[in-house]
Amino acid sequence: MEAMISQIFILSCRGDHLIYKNFRGEAGNEVVNIFYQKVTTLPENQAPVIMNHEGLHFIHVRQSGLYFVATARTNVSPFTIIEFLNRFASLIKDYCGTLNEKLVRLNFALIYELLDEMLDYGYIQTTSTDILKNFIQTEVVDTKPSSLFDLSNIGLFGADTQQSKVAPSAAASRPVFSSRSEQGSKNEVFLDVIERLTVVIGSNGTVMKVDVQGEIRMKCFLPSGSELRIGLNEEFSIGKSELRGYGTAVRVDECSFHEVVKLDDFDSNRILKLHPPQGELTIMHYQLSDDLPSVLPFRLFPTVEKDLNSNRLMVHLKLRCDLPPKSQALNVRVHLPVPKNTIRSPDISILLQIKFQSPSFIS
Questions:
Q1: Can you give the pLDDT at residue 31?
Q2: Cβ burial 199-220 (10 Å sphere, 16+ → b, else e)
Q3: What is d(CA 191, CA 280) in angstroms, rounded to the nearest whole number?
Q4: How far apart are CA 88 and CA 92, in angstroms?
């Protein structure tokens, strides 16, 4: 089934219209406000990716606080549209260096030119960086980051984690395709290993469930066609049955690789060979559940006390971080579910503030 997109638009988290492109004229721009009303009035925090309004399908992803939305009248493949929207956001990162509302506003002409080359009457033509760079003529309007502590982008290539500064380095956040005179002046590669750890802890402090989802992300400034070889730990094992070496095995339950990765030497030498395109891409995904090879980076000590006079329960949570001093944990959240008949908010979360080294409550 070939994807046929009616409209593409980008909204800020406040609903501001940043980019709007109508390819087929099947609906007006009033659908932008309809989408934002639907996505903000849903009862849950996480909105569904696909919504419908009077025969018009809304398919969206959210990255860096921005909504990337596509509409369609026909019964299109949602996975194709989602992949296209994610690729569209990655292309903006490649050309602008990073992704945020300010850069989208400054580079609206470049983004419209990208859409004109990527889509023709709603049909996807290409999302290849190597092909698009031959047609895009608009120069990027660059800007300095407004804050050193802007953590909207998880991929912190070249981050400085010695102290409390965790902002991306200027070298990694620069545009992949800069001015014609500077293009190809620096051949660099940045690798970032990102892991998302989800832990369920029982009332007695025991760990009930652990899930680790990780990825190896690359930002490549090398000329297209360059060969890279990435060596993993020789004792890297996939699944419990495949154990390698005599030391402590680095094990994952399952993993997948980007299509540009060649696995000819992976089984024997644990070497990934690839010819990456210019820009940002995820070369490997992996997952590990329950049986972790090392201790958790955090320990939680819960205490429950009952006040007989007021008939209230007092819950005290003590969170201990066992990470090395040179490491940083980002976006740490502790979620405490309580019964729905609780007088206060039915669910209370706390966010760990790195600056003040103390948790703050989120209703």
A1: 92
A2: bebeeeeeeeebebebbbbbbb
A3: 10
A4: 6
Non-local (6+) Cβ contacts of 186 within 8 A are: 171, 221
Mean pLDDT of 31-38: 91
- Separation between Cα atoms, residue 329 and residue 77, nearest integer Å: 37
Burial of 179: CB neighbours in 10 Å, binned 0-12, 13-18, 19+: exposed
Taking residues 343-356, report their average pLDDT. Answer: 53
Tokens of 325: 């001093």
- Continuous segment of H or E residues that includes residue 37: helix 30-40
Q: How many CB atoms lie within 10 A of CB 295?
A: 9
**Ordered DSSP codes for 169-208:** PTTTSS-SS--TTTTTS---EEEEEEEEEEEEE-TTS-EE
pLDDT confidence tier of residue 285, bands split at 50, 70 and 90 = very high
pTM score: 0.66
